[in-house]
Amino acid sequence: MQTWDASADVVVAGYGGAGVAAALTARAGGADVLAIDRYLGGGATALSGGIVYAGGGTWVQRAAGVEDDTENMLAYLRAEVGDAVSERTLRQFCEESASMIDWLTSHGVPFQPSLCPYKTSYPTDDYYLYYSGSENSGGYRELATPRQRGHRAHGRGVSGKKLFGPLAASAAKHGVRVETGTRATKLVIEDGRVVGIEAITLRDAPAAVRRRFAALARISAKPGVYHQGLRRAVQALLDRIERRHGTPIRIEARSGVILTTGGFIANGEMVARHAPTYPWREGLPLGTAGDDGSGITMAVAAGADTGKMDAISTWRFIAPPSAFFGSLAVNAQGQRMIDESRYGATLGAAIAETPGNRAWLLIDIELEREARRQLGPQSVWFQRMQAERLLRLGRTSGGSVEEVARRAGIDPVALRRTVDAHNDAIDADLPDPMGKPADIRRPIRTGPFALLDISFKAHLTYPTPMLTLGGLLVDEDTGAVRTTDGGTIPGLFAAGRAAVGICSNSYVSGLSLADCVHSGRRAGTHSIQRAHTA
After folding, report:
1. Within 13 A of 246's CA, how many CA atoms are on the CB side?
2. Of 128, 175, 133, 160, which Cα lies nearest the Cα of 24?
3. Rounded CA gap, 534 and 528, in Å?
4. Packing angle of the helix pair 228-245, 207-221 (nearest 10 deg)
């Protein structure tokens, strides 16, 4: 007979975006739900920009005058998502997208139909609906009519808390129990079924200790996400508190356990093992210290299978200012790398494949003047800081294309050939060599010229955010965790970045959070079936 310190129908391990969506859904289905979180809850969702990728005619799109439908959304995402999920699952995701925004709205998440009039990586506080992917870039316009689908939760600054906060408040109102300062350590299995979870908790620690833990956890989240040395130092203090004051507990899950523990970008050893050739050391791990792969590891120990574990999304955003989409992104060989209007993760992937991860933006004086005019009205403080760093500290200047190339260490003959091919295509009204749309490209011909360094370099003012996209393989109908022999583990579910999902091949802003909500609700729905039959 098992002995338990606590019990619930459904136990959710990890209380970020996927976790709260799973908990709300299971609770709405009548289950007693207990959610645990190693820190304070919120996870990477609370640190994020609060962008939810949604379309097909959401109420926000309609209010903004954006005409969209399921087939149009599907046509675009099919090209981005590839084989990450089945065609049937992707279609379902698109068909349910508008109702997902309705669901989020019903739980208090604020959206606003203010349409951003320019292409950007993240809009200012004036705008909350924008092109958050490559919808308006070359190649994709031929597949689907470009439509704005980046739904930013309404709130000043970075809006992740405006997404998670209302969901957590709604969950509390509806009776979801939450234990913070509680780290899941092991799945409890009986007769081949997951029946509970083991954890270390601080719930019985002195109040002063819990307050100190909470204060340190907030520092680890921010500013720790921007300074990994600080995060490591703070984490050592958090670990010490847990060792001294943590209590081992066993929690019964009468119906199911849902793992929503995030990815593994905070676990350098795990990243190196699964993506040994990827330049992850050059990037900024995006997420919390809890994104250490612990949930994935627990499930693998129970026989779970994984997929896309070598998939890492690396972001190199060049806008705002939007004028920079008219620049030329080149490598040390003087060759263009990409249609520069593509989403920043696509540019990041291209840089990751170049020798030494070296890359530059070539601009001329006309493009620079346009960029400087745009910088104020188009950017928030951290974007302005990054753009100024590029324009001031990360630049090499020269009176001619050949001169600026030599000064930067780029093949001058090859760069001249690249510029001529670009300009000649514009002059002859021919397609761009890299597929950039005609309305975005600009001629590069008026000196002086500048090469702006967008290489992967650890720099506080121009970081290269990275996150993992792979995880546990799940049944796409239920969210049940799959085994290495093709079956599923009874009583175990996974969602969000702990699992393979919609964005596991290609990331655009908002697609991960949308997948967290979609997969969290799926797991929450199917995790309660045993409770209903008990």
Report:
1. 21
2. 175
3. 10
4. 160
Measured CA to CA in angstroms, residue 81 lies from 87, 90, 437, 505, 507 at distances of 10, 8, 22, 6, 8
Give the H/E segment covering residue 247: strand 247-259
Helix (H, G, I), strand (E, B) or coil at 27: helix
Q: Note the pLDDT tens digit of each residue in 138-195.
A: 999 999 999 999 999 999 989 999 999 999 999 999 999 999 999 999 999 999 999 9
Give the Cα separation of 518 and 90 in Å (integer): 11
The pLDDT tens digits for 319-356 are: 999 999 999 999 999 999 999 999 999 999 999 999 89
Confidence at 431, pLDDT banded by 50, 70, 90: very high
Q: Are 464 and 348 in contact (CB under 8 A)?
A: yes
- Contact predicate 490/327, CB 8 Å: no
How many CB atoms sit inside 10 A of residue 395's CB? 18
For the chain, give percent helix, strand, coil, nearest 5. 40, 20, 40
Count other Cβ atoms within 10 Å, centred on residue 484: 11
Report the DSSP pairing between strands 449-453 and 465-468: unpaired
**Helix-helix angle 381-392:365-378, to 10 degrees:** 160
pLDDT in tens, 102-132: 999 999 999 999 999 999 999 999 999 999 9
pTM of the model: 0.96
Q: What is the CA radius of gyration of the chain?
A: 24
Asked, as a colleague might, if the bond just before 146 is cis with ω within 30 of 0, I would say: no
Gap between the Cα atoms of 156 and 492, Å rounded: 38
pLDDT at 459 over 90: no
Q: Are 51 and 116 in contact (CB under 8 A)?
A: no
| Beta strands per DSSP E along 50-139 | 51-53, 129-130
- pLDDT of 463 above 80: yes
* φ, ψ at 151 (rounded to 5°): -95, 105
Q: How far is Cα 222 from Cα 220, in angstroms, rounded to an integer?
A: 6
Mean pLDDT across the chain: 95
Comparing CA positions, the residue from 453, 445, 512 lying closest to residue 263 is 512
pLDDT of residue 403: 98
Say yes or no to pLDDT of 284 above 90. Answer: no
Pairing of strands 6-13, 33-36: parallel
Beta strands in 389-503 (DSSP E): 395-398, 449-453, 465-468, 471-472, 480-482, 488-494
Predicted pLDDT at 462: 80
Residue 152: CB atoms within 10 A of its CB come to 30
Classify residue 440 as left (phi > 0), alpha (psi -120 to 50) or beta: alpha
58 pLDDT more than 70:
yes
Q: Which of 50, 100, 55 is nearest to 75 (CA)?
A: 55
CB 524 within 8 A of CB 107: no
Tokens of 212: 């100190």
